[in-house]
């Protein structure tokens, strides 16, 4: 029974994606009957998936014709994916050179709406591998990348974070809103952020923003290492190399002034 349920669930997901792809590939709005014929399934089955996709915002239904087209959420998702791809290609050489220069792990994250998501990790040369898994959503208050996002992303701000958004992850996590505001203002002024054992004991990070046209915040590049390699008294050479890599990636995305 468990295998059948799992198999049925997979088929359901496959059909939902098939429906979404057919609507996306249609030259104009498309109806339930056409989709059922194209997919070789029943109108009822197609309609159930259409209803869910409309409710989630991935599709939109024309109230006059009852036909379907892509919804806002599909465009948002596509834009976020494109941003991630652009950022990867724009920053690839800079990240590799940064890793090779300092021997530390380099983590690249992209802003997707109001979420900061890791899209690439270049592991350092240490025998102890330290990195962040691709696809990880980063909390904004307790790591260097998050503080950079709060400082440079126009759609984000400390005042938008509720009490539930400021949990104490370690004894070093900043949970006081006013202190976080002070730190974010400092990050904005100096162009980089540090988080020493704030998210994971024994692990530190420093990060700098990657900006695009009109100084739009695209993402962040971070160095991640043990506290022995990134100390509380951050090495100016590490900061210089980090900011140089971030600015190099920013130039590739059309940015023309230093943060």
TrEMBL record:
Keyword RNA-binding in record: no
Q: Which InterPro entries match?
A: GAF-like_dom_sf (IPR029016), HTH_MetabolicPath_Reg (IPR050707), Tscrpt_reg_IclR_C (IPR014757), Tscrpt_reg_IclR_N (IPR005471), WH-like_DNA-bd_sf (IPR036388), WH_DNA-bd_sf (IPR036390)
Keyword set for this entry?
DNA-binding, Transcription, Transcription regulation
Q: Does the keyword Transcription apply?
A: yes
Biological processes, Gene Ontology terms: negative regulation of DNA-templated transcription
Output the Gene Ontology terms for molecular function: DNA binding; DNA-binding transcription factor activity
Q: Name one Pfam family in it.
A: HTH_IclR
Q: Which SUPFAM superfamilies match?
A: GAF domain-like, Winged helix' DNA-binding domain
UniProt protein name: HTH-type transcriptional repressor AllR
Organism field: Pseudomonas bharatica CSV86
């Amino acid at each position: 029974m468990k295998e059948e349920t799992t198999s049925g669930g997979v088929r359901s997901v496959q059909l939902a994606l098939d429906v979404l792809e057919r609507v996306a590939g249609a030259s104009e709005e498309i109806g339930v009957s056409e989709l059922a014929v194209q997919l070789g399934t029943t109108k009822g089955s197609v309609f159930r998936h259409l209803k869910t996709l409309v409710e989630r915002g991935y599709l939109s239904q024309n109230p006059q014709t009852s036909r379907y087209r892509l919804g806002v959420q599909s465009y948002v998702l596509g834009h976020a994916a494109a941003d991630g791809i652009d950022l990867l290609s724009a920053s690839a050489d800079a990240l590799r050179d940064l890793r090779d220069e300092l021997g530390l792990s380099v983590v690249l994250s992209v802003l997707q709406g109001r979420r900061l998501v890791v899209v690439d990790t270049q592991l350092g040369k240490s025998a102890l591998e330290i990195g962040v898994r691709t696809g990880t959503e980063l909390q904004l208050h307790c790591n260097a990348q998050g503080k950079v996002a709060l400082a440079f992303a126009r759609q984000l701000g400390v005042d938008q974070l509720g009490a539930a958004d400021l949990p104490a992850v370690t004894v070093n996590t900043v949970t006081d809103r006013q202190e976080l505001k002070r730190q974010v203002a400092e990050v904005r002024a100096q162009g980089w952020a540090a988080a020493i054992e704030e998210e994971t004991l024994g692990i530190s990070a420093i990060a700098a923003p990657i900006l695009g046209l009109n100084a739009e915040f695209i993402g962040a590049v971070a160095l991640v290492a043990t506290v022995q390699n990134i100390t509380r008294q951050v090495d100016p050479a590490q900061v210089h190399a980090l900011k140089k890599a971030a600015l190099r990636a920013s130039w590739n995305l059309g940015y023309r002034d230093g943060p």
